[in-house]
Each structure stands twice: as C-alpha cells, then as structure tokens.
C-alpha cells in the first residue's frame, strides 16, 4: 500500500480554516493553529494501512481530518480493538506522554487523511503554543483513563475466566460426591428397609436392643473401613466370612459387613449379647444403618464444601456490596482468594500456604480491587513455580501499615526484564498465556489505595511485597 501526500493538499490558509472547525483543536488561538499548519505534513492513507505495529516507536502527533483508524491490542486470547479515532480527533504521540511505544497495531479502517507533526518539534510547540499544548495534554489524560479502564475490564474478564475454570474443577468434586452418594443411597434403601423389617420381626428384648444400639454407635465411631492393599482386603473379607460361618450365618454377608470397619472383638461381644436368630437379623440391619448414615454424612460434607466455595466467590467479588470505599477485612480477602485458587495449585501439585497475623487492621478501599491484586500475584506465582513447587502468602502489620508478601520458589525473574514487568502488555508468558496487564493493573490498584509494591527476585525465590496503610482494627465476631 502506498502512502501519499494529499494531491489536492489544502493551502496553509485553508488548513487553518479547517483546523478552526476541528472538534478537538478549535478552541486553540488562530496563531497556534497556524503553527500546526506550518509545521504539519498532510498525508493520506488507504484503508488497511498499518500506522504503527506493536512495540514500535510512535514518532508523530496525528490530527485526523477525515476517515477512521483504530488500535488493536493482543489480549492473550486474540486481537481486540481498544480505541478508535475519527475525523475531529487527535491521536499518536502527545506532549508529556510516557507511552513511547505502541501497545498494539494501529490500522486505518477506511481511507484516512491527517496532519502529522513530528515529536522533535514538541519542545517548540510547548514553548510557543500554550493553549494548544493544554488541549493536547487533556486529550492524553482522557486517553490514559480510557486505556486504564479498558485494561482493568479486560484483565478482570481474563482473571474471571481463569478463576471460573478452577472453580468448575473444584466444585465438580463435591458435586460429583453428592450425586454419587445420593445414587448409592437410593440403591441401598430397599435393602435397608427389608433388613429392618426382618429385625423388627425378631422382637428383640430391651437388653438385645441396647446391645444392637451399642454396636451401631461403635460402628459409626469406628468410621468406614479404609481400603488397604488387595491382599489386606481379601484377608479381612475371609476372616469375616469365617466368623459368620462359625456363628451359623451366611458367608455372603461378609461383603457388607466388611464396609462397617468393626473389628472381630466387637462382633464377638455382640454375638454374646444376642441370640443366634437375633444376631442373624441384626448384622444386615447394622450394615444398612451404618452405610446409610455414612452416605448422609458424605452428602453433608460435600454440600458444605459447595457452600464454602460459593461463599468464597461472593467474598472475592464483593458481588452483593456497593462499589464504594469502605473498611476491608484483608484476612478474609486473602482467605477467599486462596480458596478460589487452590484448585489451580492442586493441578500442579503446588503447595499453597498462608500465614496471616491474627487481628490484622482493615484497609480503607475497595475489597474487590484488592482481591484482584492478591489473585494476580498468587496466580502468577503458581504459574512461575515448577510442578511440586511452593507458594507462600503472609500478611503482617508493620509500623502503621499492613504488608502482604507472596513468595514462590520458582526460577526467578531475569534481571534484564525486572524493570519491565510492571509495564502494560509486557509478559514473559508464551503468546496466549497472559495479557501482559496483570502486574500493570496490580501496581495501579495498589497506588489507588496509597500503597506500594516492590519485588525482589533471584533463582529459587521471588517475593512480591505490597504495603498498604492500615485502617481500623477488625471487629471481633459477636
């Protein structure tokens, strides 16, 4: 594609008149618009032309006369348009901007005409065109706010996707346990009902009923039989079958009796307290009672785990609270974040530990944004370590502040990139593995809470340290 000077280029006076009606620059004095007309270069670009590629230096200020172009940034999972400029806008490099390289690919989306001013003329413009410079600085601030808002939104969505994947896995275990135990319970109910009908027909005496109750309590106290090696299971099954046979009972009952965890001495005591007929009816009822109660306990534990995870998600996102600054219980935020990320840690066999000082003071701010900080730092640490590695999170009060440390035993951050890790779109992960926004947003959010973030790293140990001003002590429950 060929970039051309505008063949029917405007004369200096015509360009000044055009700039005087320009949506962004119209408020500048006429002599300053004349400065732009004198020093600017009128250019035309066809649709699909790339003005700047990701990482390239941005050398010019662009005053857009007609057409449209946009910047597309790679967000890990693909390209996304994050900002667009049309006739009447100003783009490119702006006075006092710290963005020296393009964060994405900037392409024209239709034929576009603009006036470009080289950045080496900015010192002269700043000296001689005060009102024009002020307008351009306001444009820069608005653009920075837009990028910051877009970046935070995109990183939150990416983070939410990662957390959702981990939660789906974490919730699947207790949900599957509930479904599995409920299915087994329904399958066993007819057998249990039949066993208790048979037991009722025997008409146990009060002494025999008391012995049966003691056996049930002992069975529940012992817990289920823990599966050993195949040889150990076979030996237990054979011992129980032999015991049943010695007492004139069906050897087939050994399979259900083996699940109770009862040892032979307990069964001997029950046989001594119950007659032969009562013993034959009591053992199937005993196995049914213990099995039913145990399945109900399994369902309760799994349901409680689901409840804990849902509570952690609500606490992590602050989904039921207004987005206003308030005292934040940092210890709870760390706990909720760790609960959500444990599934990812388990998938890599990473040991994830936390040591939070009791009674930490609150932090004045936004709980959801602080949890975003912890999630990014801990998630990055889990990514950094090898399988079987360690990630440790600590929180301590220190001289009127609260200091949170996230430490991993991964390979460390190379010295040559350590100064770049907080820059937007910089990432050491392979393409698709990260947006390059996480640490930039972490630094921004920590700064908004009047805090500081520091990093120390060498092979085998990387520590991110967040220091936040302490608020009021957390109220004790009750």
Tell me the overall shape. elongated
The CATH superfamily name of the largest domain is Histidine kinase-like ATPase, C-terminal domain
CATH architecture of the largest domain: 2-Layer Sandwich
- Approximately how much beta-strand content do the residues carry? 15-25%
Report mean pLDDT, rounded to a whole number.
80
CATH topology of the largest domain: Heat Shock Protein 90
The CATH class of the largest domain is identified as Alpha Beta
DSSP summary, beta strand count: 14
- The residue ranges in which pLDDT falls below 50 over 5 or more consecutive positions are 430-437
Report the total helices: 12
Following the backbone from N to C, one meets helices and strands in this order, namely EHHEEEEEEHHHHHHHEHEEHEEHEE
* Straight-line N-to-C gap: 72 Å
List the quaternary state of the chains: single chain
The helix fraction, in percent, is 40-55%
The total domain count is 3
Output the structural class. alpha+beta
Please tell me how large the radius of gyration is: 35 Å
Q: What profile does the largest beta sheet have?
A: 7 strands, antiparallel
Describe the structure.
The structure is a single chain. The protein has three domains: 4-128, Jelly Rolls (Sandwich), CATH 2.60.120; 169-304, no CATH class; 321-469, Histidine kinase-like ATPase, C-terminal domain (Heat Shock Protein 90). The chain contains twelve helices and 14 strands. It has helices at 12-20, 30-39, 122-128, 130-202, 206-222, 230-246, 254-258, 264-273, 276-317, 330-347, 367-384, 438-448, and strands at 4-5, 41-45, 50-52, 60-74, 79-86, 90-92, 105-118, 326-328, 351-356, 363-365, 390-398, 401-408, 452-458, 461-469. Strands 1, 2, 3, 4, 5, 6 and 7 form a seven-stranded antiparallel sheet that branches. A five-stranded mixed sheet has the order 9-11-12-14-13, covered by helices on one side. A hairpin with a 2-residue loop joins β11 (390-398) and β12 (401-408). α10 (330-347) runs parallel beside α11.
